[in-house]
# Entry
Amino acid sequence: MNKPIEIPAKNRSLIIRLILVAILTLVSFWTINEPPSRKWYFQNPVFWKSLSIVNTITGFVVCTLIIRFLLKNKPALVVDSIGLKGNALSFSCGYVYWNNIEKFEIVKKPFQKMIIVFIDAPKSYIYKEQNKTYHKLMEIYFKHHGSPIIIQSTEIKYSLEELHKILNTELMKHQQLRTVI
# Structure
């Protein structure tokens, strides 16, 4: 492969998430001064005020992270002669080298399609991740799918089937090169 293939990120779902989180944050901010007036299980105003403050802070942090991710304008996935480099939310562990990749598999679930990247040392990729949130997410992926590295169709502007073909052809090329050397 002479030229790397850059798969752009799909920002539509992130924008929808940003709008929803912003609305929830504004509602939480509004309830700081006006706790719910109905009969709730917890009628303690200190509880409601502290819950609203925590929700507001969390919402601002999540909004900031989503805006930062949208402004980076990096491709979601780069396929080159070294391997795969992911910048998406579900695949951000840096380079996955062709030597470590065993196979690619498309999994279709209700409302979700993804490519699972099976690698030979999944635990090393999990422990290499510095961000605790991504680390936990990779552990969950490994537990449910057998691999910590997943490419979700909701995060890329590319046909999943075409991407699967490209990834398989590149993997075959590099496996043939490995056997020759």
